[in-house]
## 1
Amino acid sequence: MKKLLYILCLFVLAISACNKDFVNLQPTTIISGTAAYSTPSAVYALMASFYSRIGSNFEDQTYSEGFPPNYTGTWTDESIGTFPWANVSNTVSGGFGWWDYGLMKDLNDFIAKIPSANIGQDLRTRYLAEAKFLRAYMYFGMAKRYGGVPLITKVLVPGVDNLQVPRSTEQQVYDFVGSQLDTVINVLNPAYGDGSDKFRATKYTAYALKCRAMLYAASEAEYGSVQLNGLVGIPASAARDYWQKAHDAGLAIIQSGAFGLYQANADPATNFQQLFNGTDATSNKEILFAKAYALPNNAYSLDFFNEPQSFKVDWGNYTNPTVELVEQFEYTDGSPGKLKVNDANGKPIQYKNPADLFAGKDPRFFASILYPNAEWHANGDPKGGYIELRRGIVVGTDTLINEDLSKTYGTGANAITFNGKDGPTVSNESTKTGFFMKKFLTESSTFVPNLNKSAATGIIFRYGEVLLNFAEASIELGNTGDALTAINQIRSRAGIKQLGSVTRDQVRHERTVEMAFENQRYWDLRRWHIADKVFNNTPLHALFPYLVWKDNTSPANMSYIFRKVQIPNRPTRTFIPSTYYFSIGTSGADSYLTQNPGY
């Protein structure tokens, strides 16, 4: 029976002119399986369609394409979602599931048929390796969610094959991922020379996936527990081998010399900001693998959902960083990042400029988070190129607050709104924490953050993560020298004091700061099995600035104080230990599968 496969109608143009947008190509027509393998251009288009169908399920890219609840960071201690329906108490979300055996079936079919396709042997070998990479990526994505899953490596034929394939153990799935990547690493080219290197699997993309996947396997073996006869969990005895595999895969990338940390701008904050939204991915040596976007027809809406209050078009404000994350960013001298809100006697410190509270912070803070009085330019700068945040006004011993952003206090030239133009507020949809996410946002006074106007490259693997993975594997293996070297490279690029020695907690801390909002924290807390400790009826906190009123004085000459408070109208967060693995679907075709613990 012929199986219908998605194909691109404009594949000839794609081959000749659009290689750099390979992973963006969208399937628009359907032709039969026979025709799909009849010409080089048809096979090219079919392979492109697999990348496209995985689409946003390259879920480890630096942001979500979809609706705001799909931002994993808002389900951690990084941030909260502004809107009332974004309240999170139990930090388990079934919305992050990935169970696409339809695509898996098509990849298996492609892997079976590509050896006899009507194309040259070099292309057959390359496309076979790419398909195996994508299949390994999918199995890794499922293993980190569910543990062991049915390991299906061929197209099952009704009446011939058993269609009720049982779950393999979690270790078997990770071992399959590792072995598949080993088979393609020496087949895939280090580079293709046609502009597609960053947007499809290469030798080093496969190394990067192996480095990450083996790190996750090692973490489960080291910190998890075996349940259901190994359907979830990996024996502790296997941990060291997985740590070593992650270390070696990272080392292969490092020693290749093909990649490096992005360092195009002398200012470390500007440099870090440009890494994500100011460079052409094809010339950015930090990017190993990415998803490309282009206006007008292949963009997304990150800016639309996250632009600060006075710069938004409609929604805006969604991702509100917490004080917990803000204080993870150290000061450049290496001292802890606790904000200096009160003096030694507990009295609020007054700041003439609210931004002065953050002076000396790790430059990555200024590139990642918008804070009171931060400079910002977007949407024509309708109310000035800065973030104005003020929760209320302190008059003597009274604190005056009004949720209406337009309401004023004082008279004449000294009148000023109770709130800043960007909040924060409790009852409406401005920021609830006193901060906005900056990382990935487009900063340009001419940029209008409408729906589907964001087009920055979606980074899936970057060299900074490779160094962090390598450092983590090294520290777990007892090789503190390698870990220290890798971490200090990260800190040097960031513009922060280097370490003289390093511990596991410092490696994890560096990962939290360097990769804030990059969809890593959610999975890190789970694989380290510390989510139930971090979230145990845990409150998260906001920072509220208040103007200290002085009669007969211009507000521009008044000072601000700050108060750290539990985020209003948000519940504490708890993680249930039995939910380190997602629920297995047990209805319909999957009803025969063994359910995970806790469901």
Note: The first strand starts at residue 5 and ends at 7.
## 2
Amino acid sequence: MAVEFTHLPHATILGYPRIGRRRELKRAVESFWAGRTTTDELETTARDLRLATARHLAGLGLDGAAAVPGSFSFYDQVLDAVALLGAVPERFRDLVSTGSTSEGAGALSLEGYFTLARGEGDKPPLEMTKWFDTNYHYLVPEIGPDTPIGFVDDRVVRQFTELARPADGGQAVVTRPALVGPVTFLLLSKPADGAPEGFRPLDRLDDVVAAYADVLRALAAAGAPWVQLDEPALVTDLLDVPFDEVADAVRRAYAQLATDLSPATGATGTAERPAILVTAPYGDLRSEVGDGLALLAGLDVEAIAVDLVKGAVPTGPVAGLKTKTLVAGVVDGHNIWRADLDARLTTLEGLTALGAGAVAVGTSTSLLHVPHDVADEPRLDAGLKSWLAFADQKVAEVVTLATGLTGGRTAVADALAESTAAVRSRAEAPGVVVPEVRERTAALTPADVERAPYAERAAAQQAKLDLPPLPTTTIGSFPQTAEIRTTRAAWVRGELSDAEYTTAMRAEIASTVALQEELGLDVLVHGEPERNDMVQYFAEQLDGFVTTVHGWVQSYGSRCVRPPILWGDVSRPAPLTVEWTAYAASLTDKPVKGMLTGPVTILAWSFVRDDLPLGDTADQVALALRDEVTDLEEAGIGVVQVDEPALRELLPLRRADHPGYLDWSVRSFRLSTAGAATATQVHTHLCYSEFGQVIGAIDGLDADVTSVEAARSRMEIVPELADAGYGRGIGPGVYDIHSPRVPSVEEVTELVRLAAKSIDPRLVWVNPDCGLKTRAYAETKESLRNLVRATEEVRATL
């Protein structure tokens, strides 16, 4: 099939949720992991889901060829690129096909693909970290000078073909295959173990681009008219590569992919590649470090997509755009509020000044970050529901705006009027502004965020808690068994009385406390059996939030969350956690931690309001938590942990914006904890982030003990903290809880020794990387037993 170049359709999106409307993919993948289903059965479920999704999107109005993005993944789009290229770390090379099986030489089976994500035996998985400024996590490729790189896995081609020529003979959909762009892939990679000093993954650009060129040739041969290459690395300057070098890499890459490969050799000739859409979501292409918009406009690609929600709208002509389609991302792919269509259409109309060959309407990012459909939410208030747009509603907004842009405002007059009415209704609704809440935050003073000096606190806390060197603890949650979930669900449905539910949860807490005492942990937790999610649990009890029934969003792999919706001013009508924590403390003589989720993380893992500065909302949440800390202390709890795993997550993608963010985020944490007594030990927890970029902020939190993810990175953060002069308690994780493997005593011992070598051992705590909610009890018990044994071995040497 020959490829004929046309402009990109006027309405498109950059990606769509891939887990399924009822989390079909999650269930299928986890069933496969458990050995209950076969590879063929998983592949069939995934194929059916892709086909249903593509046809659904076409039915919503994305009916032009290649308007529907092919953005499916079994686990993670960056891991997909690793598999595509065969860029497998040395420790997993035994999983790579030699060509004698159904996979091509250098390819991974589906089992091997998942092994890179989850680890196996003594092989730790790929490191995981945040995807730009979202709550999505990606797997970090490991690239060295000798890492194999080539086009070894044609899954992306097969998935295009199965939709363009479906085996069921039904509706065909010509999709736009979407891949992580070659420059972003390498900028997000880390040097492989053993790579020579000075080596950077970007040094392998020519090899990666050559492989991508082969991918494009294969897609063209299959009949794909367009391909989407995502280059979000262009909207950040946090990747420690100067803009000039990034720009040079982009020019080199797309000279080979766009210029050297022709979309067609003649009017009816055979194409060497599809037309190329380069996307740059999650931020502004233009900054003080360089002009990424001009860079992309200068490439020989057919279309570029820009984020006009977080990015500024250019006001003048941009050289090079006249030969391209500009996909204007005016519909927010990262939040759930209904768009002001009149204002968005005005923005689109103003883009004619840029001189683009054509303007298409799109989303600012992939819709991966929002739930499927507001219509699936039976419990939301009708008025509030009218303010919201999930993925399907956002597709409808894109289609409406495209119709208005091409057909004029009269063609969409009713939709514009309905949007304007919804925006006005939201602004005027009771609860959006609560005077008492606004007055309390306005009355705050600098003294409200200060505690006594750390040395004074440390002495008082040790006198009260009497902890040994290298104290052991966990991050908070223990495994949530099927029985726990069933009990909680029955209570929610009204099938269990409050008394019956309390009895069941108390039994689970008692079992968890007894287990921790048996294992020999020093500071205990109640295990959080009553909590469905570390943010949702609090949102369900705080005024200003609502929660959903089916609003699932992928966080990583098969892990899905339902972010609450923060729609109004926040306050605490009653204590949130005291009953459960106090009960746990009554069962033991050891210290028990009260467990709270911090204000920044509650915001980061919710869909936040866009009509109030985040810092103001954070202060409202912080004051609610401050009241909870006071109540925990009055109940006799002497250790309180306020988790902030998302502190790094919300860090702006441009360094120039860091000071303002760090000011309000650190202030809100301190506001939530500074009311604690000197003898109350305040902990915090951070996970799966590049902590080196926020070490100053970690110190600024002024927590008595900070636990951080460190197992996958093998204590990478510890020397950085030591170099920064960090002088309070630190608990670098020694047990990677996002993998089912059990770390050996020897492995944990080595990690504890590494930590105690870099940091004063008197400050070091020993704990897992994160909560144990997603783990099974058998592996949890063995892992924690090994953690305690390893700690005892290191203690004996101090």
Note: Residues 1-5 have pLDDT under 50 and may be disordered.
## 3
Amino acid sequence: MATLPVLPLAESVLLPGMVIPVTLDAATQAAVDAARTAGDDTLLAVPRLDGEYGPVGTIAVIEKVGRLSSGEPAAVIRGLARGRIGSGVPGPGAALWVEVTRVTEPAASEKVREQAREYKTMLVALLQRRSAWQVIDAVERMTEPAELADSAGYAPWLSVEQKAELLAAIEVGDRLDKLTAWIRDHLAELDVSEKISEDVRESVEKTQREFLLRQQLAAIRKELGEDEPEGSADYRSRVEAADLPEKVREAAIREVDKLERASDQSPEAGWIRTWLDTVLEMPWTTRTEDNTDLGQAREVLDADHAGLEDVKDRILEYLAVRNRRAARGLQVVGGRGSGAVLALVGPPGVGKTSLGESVARALGRKFVRVSLGGVRDEAEIRGHRRTYVGALPGRIVRAIREAGSMNPVVLLDEVDKLSAGYAGDPAAALLEVLDPAQNHTFRDHYLEVDLDLSDVLFLATANVADTVPGPLLDRMEVVTLDGYTEAEKVAIARDHLWPRQLDRAGLTAEDVSVTDEVLGLLASEYTREAGVRQLERALGRVLRKVAVQLSTSGDGAAGTGAGPDAAGAGRAEVTAANLKDYLGRPRFTPESAERTAVPGVATGLAVTGAGGDVLFIEATALADGEPGLTLTGQLGDVMRESAQIALSYLRSHGPELDIDPVKLQRQLHVHVPAGAVPKDGPSAGITMVTALASLATGRPVRPEIGMTGEVTLNGRVLPIGGVKQKLLAAHRAGLTEVIVPARNEPDLDDLPATVRDQLTIHVVADVADVVRLALRPVGAGTLAHAA
């Protein structure tokens, strides 16, 4: 055991066999002075990590004391052996003196030598990577495992903490195990680092190669005169030359600046180019001149569509107001134009979609149709954010771009078929588009600049208004298209459908002719509908059969007796007499008289998605069974409640109507054909009262009368909707009298005069009046009723 001064090492570790310089400060200078004063220049070098000394130090000797090249005082020391630190003892000078026990290295076993050979192999491999050939020679000359392990003190890839841990390991085998694990981890890190460096180098080389090739390609194109300007400089010139609003120009210039800073190969450059192309293709300042001749506009509308007077009047009103605003210099007020939003609501086939194109022709504007049926994504309306892959502007922006002007007629087709999905509610996104007070600053998510839609004429179409959200419907002016009368259908078929189907069948007016009588039969007996689609299909079937006859018949078309020439050309005439040969027997015939021939059946009027329709309500009483009411026909909750209300009213007010309430204390069954069609709504209330009253009295309902209205427990007749469609359906079905609620009398003003003249319309406020009007008088064809 020896007593030695302590030399603290803060940033290095001295292992046996190592020679290192130590910069002298107050603590290290005191230790060096104490060692030199003692006469043997021996001291104990101990690493001091985090302010604490380790349990093991290195017994070292001072080789030289002097100054470094920087002028700082320093001492060169050489490690001799490990020493265990004992207790502190007093000594001369300001140094710390401790008792030290020298650690002797035992003879190396065969296992330790095997560990040394493994470590030496890995160390040589590492040094070969670094091309340290002189160090490799020194390592190869080392034969003792302890000497080999302690030489790791020079390794730059080991941290000070790892070297201190190596110093504290007394056994050689432990030192070699630690070094083997550390060098293996270091080699793995080198492999990863070299792979990353190789990938980066290859990527840089590829980028440089592509850049050179592109530069050469650009030079070749320029020499050939085939230069395609695609760079940021070209976009800058295009933006500066384009006629853009100031805010849009500023946004475009900012994007051009980003494009100039971005690499040509970066995805962001492609997104910016696509956005700039979209902005430059928009008709920001292009507008078409409206047709100011109201008479000419009316002629265009009348030529394209028969009837629809409400819509035509509204379009002419819009045009007249716009002309007056332009004459007074009020084209734009406060950033808002005179845009209009019309909602055309009506059954299929009445011409809602084709009306949009006619409006555009009448106004002299561009026309764009936007189909909204089945759209479930809010981004379809407002566009996608540019951060998404494959982002596109919304359908409104695309429609404006397609139209090529800022004031087109945009038809939003099937707006009632919108539905909310996981990606948002597209109907909610339309609120800003269709609000004249907001759409002058419409902002698409893709463009992110204000777009003025105030001068766009929006036309929305829907089959039913009930499925359109209330806030969206509130932003539109609803114009109802309730269907055509038979006279209007004949005019449409003669002027529009027949010529179009002639062309599709490859026929001309010289080949086949048709009379208005035949067109009337087609509309009334073969296609009973609100619109004219089925009528056009029927005409197509007739002309296809005519085409076959003219091509194959040897003695002319049926009903004409005119023989075709050698080429098969002849002339056919479709008449009421031979119409059955083309289309078979009529599909629709008046059935009200047959259905109401027995007591308990009443004719009601209803509205479906396809327009108005006639509804028969049947009631019967069972000879046995508990008193009660059975309802069939797929009735909704509201319609079931109407039946209960009707029965309760008759039971409580039977004597007032000459009805014995006892006859209603039976098992009653009410059925509404067709059973496969769901039905709901309150407007069948008075029809159910009439059917049950007919059953109880044994008096059949008059066959020529139909009715609609909601009933209360007190017998009041409340107003209902769809009056015009229901009365048109009654006219088509051959009814001559109808009963409607008194509070629906203003709705009769919308009924065409031709229909109103042929119908006797009774307005009632009490259901008792309905029963008196609807039931046949006693003895007028009344069947015996065994109630």
Note: The CA atoms of residues 443 and 450 lie 5 Å apart.
## 4
Amino acid sequence: MLQAIGLTSTPRRDLPPLVDDLTFEARPGCVTALLGEPGSGKTTALRLMLELEPGRGVTYFRGRPLHRIPHPGREVGVLLGDVPGHPSRTVRGQLRMLCAAVGVPASRADTMMEVVGIAGLRDQRLGSLSAGMDRRVGLAAALLADPCTLLLDEPAAGLPPRERAWLHGLLRGHASLGGAVLFTTADAKEAARSADRVVSIASGRLVADQEAADFARTRLRPRVAVRTPHAARLADVLGREARAAHRAVEIVEESGSRLSVYGSNCAEVGEAAFRNGVLVHQLADETGDAGAPVTPVPQARTGAGGAVKAEARVEAGAPRRAGAGAAGPDTPADPLPDPRHAPAGAPGGGFRSEPGGAPASWPAPGPESEGRPATGARPLHARPEPPVSAVRRVGGPLRPLRYELRRVFGTATPFLTAALVVTVSALTALVLARAGHLPRNRVLAAWPELAPLPPAALGAGLLGALAFGEEYRYPALAADRGTVPRRLGLLTAKLGVCAALALLLGALAVTADAAALRLVFGRGPLGTWEEWAEPAASWAGLLVGCAWAGVLASAVFRSASAGLAAVLAVPVMVVPLVRKALEGPSAYPVSGFASRLRGLASAPWPAESDRYVLGAFRVMAQPVGAALVLSLMVLLCAYGFTGLRGRVRW
């Protein structure tokens, strides 16, 4: 059960709220349409439900608000806007990354690709998909964790009729297993055909909350769709009889063999055609002017091997709609398998089965399901309870690490960044060595005096700044806004992966610089280990600090550009301030600090370790090191503040 209570957006000053005191519910086992004109506040309402938009009100998902659910991605499947993924990522890579995000096995991605009919596109880039395939990937992402509730924003926008029929059949199958489905649309005829309940809003306010049959009867114009080879003759006959009976009947010729008759019904049109000897191929009561109603999938039968095959009933005289992969618009075809679950016995399958093989959560066929109209609502006693998901959950401390590794290496960004950094660093080191006026450690790091940071540090900061992009940019992870981006486990995984990438990038850059110097000049700047221990520690601290500054800044400001700007702000703004504070004589010298620190230790401390302690403090006392420590502390405080600030409240 989804209950939205008092949803109200908080717009800018002197502007009316886009959503104003909106209250409604979406029941389990039903498909609910949120209907409104463009700009009426449908998308804002969904974002308020998901706590992505500041405002008032509360939304309960099976009795709990979103920020009280431990794993929101397993409770709510979301599709807002375009497909949630980087354009250069493959379909399979995107779904496997999201499997790690919501905590289900990676094999679930292959299962859902089979369910939505995109198994042949697993190696395609997301940016190369058509609109229909884009929607299928988005739905597969929303259904990965077998959620009880689906929230979809204009899921059929821009799709051809065949893809619309497939999509709404999939949503109907999800609802038939006890899930709650809420989708927004601006098409009243689509809402009447595809939903059990229609919630109409205008200017952010509730206008009506009706069963689909009542909505179609009171707010839409019914018609009789006629298909006959003698359309002109039948139109003339119907017009003459209507004038003779003084009835208001409107007849619209849509094509060479189709008529739409408004103000009449199938019985009257059929009797008039029979009396006048007009051959009729089809008679159907419809709503609006968008074609025959798409009949929902009321039941399922279990085929050989436990595979579930859904059968769509077709109204008398109406052509059967083709499913995905059919040869033509009138070719009979079974719809795709159940949208929420894989076939029984398949990896990652979701529903529970009785001993006889039939799914326990599917309603048994009966007279009610056989005679239910296409746009009618199910009786309350017939709604199935939400089933217990059998999808195996993958938890533990490695879950955020798996997600972060799939996110980082799912695109070519780290490899391109490393190639660019190594090339620029090697060329810069050659130029600096040729000039011959810099210390050897600066030459090896390719760090000119006028540059704020060396190329490797800039590359590490860039990778860190991109770390939080997908949690805020792509709506598949948006339902976890209150927990995942600010969860300590995910932050730790991002910091750890970015630190490892930064150190690896620095090692590659230094190795490339040394190799280039030895190749061109016949000798390199490397010396003994003791000579390079302190510069190496300083180099590693600089790289890790830049990467972490980018991670934290992108998390605080929700922007990769802001994260990179924070990395550059350290040497440009913070370093001069720290240098000014550290310059000049001190009234309290720190000589002898290592020996005093050794005296405080409970265990014996070797005397030769004083050199390493002093080296570590010298690294921190350098202007760049102190500036990075200061910047990281500020960003950590800002990150904690944004994580603790008030969320949506009633």
Note: The radius of gyration is 32 Å.
